[in-house]
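Weekly structure sync, notes
Attendees: PL (lead), two postdocs, one rotation student
Agenda item 3: pending single-chain targets
PL asked that the sequence for the first pending target be pasted directly into the notes so everyone works from the same version. It is reproduced below exactly as submitted, 199 residues in total.
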Amino acid sequence: MYLSRIYLPWKFAANSYQWHQVLWQLFPQRSTESRDYLFRTEKAVVGQGMTVLLQSHSQPKSCESANVLASKTFQPILRSGIALRFCLRANPIKSIRDEDGRKNRQGEVKSCRVPLIDELEQRQWLERKLANSAALSSLEITPDNVLHFRKSGHAGKIQSVVFSGALIVENHDALLALLENGIGPAKAFGCGLLSLANR
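Predicted structure, written out during the meeting:
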């Protein structure tokens, strides 16, 4: 894998719905494949641009819409029992069934996703996601900016949070899978990238 720092000019950085599409242009040789990268916005300066941390299986190449500032190979070696620092921007949610019992086309009762705003619920959500891969030894939860977007004429929003702290590796293969695949929904909006570092 590769870890890269990317710069997006403001005309692309200002619209969160464009982030994923712009970053995909860094991989022109893979335009017909499924997108297999994760990213996290790092620093944005209104009117100027934004830096992004990008984890990908292929090395990104600068394009007209985004510039690769730095890129290096990333080969994590995880061992059960070691302690690591971590950072994760995520979109912790839960599904709520429709109170009126309305059904979708498949005849199932409709449900909607709602953000978890209680810190205890957010912690429990993260513990469920890390189950069988790592155990939290310390955790700090920081509310993040609300992202507003429009898709197919409908308005939406994502209430992400930043989890940081320390964890103990329990199953290195399971944790590596989370590292590669990301955690939780809203990956197209910069959620899900788990960063690990030695304590």
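Discussion points:
- Helices lie at 10-13, 19-24, 119-130, 172-181.
- The longest helix spans residues 119-130.
Action: rotation student to compare against the earlier draft before next sync.
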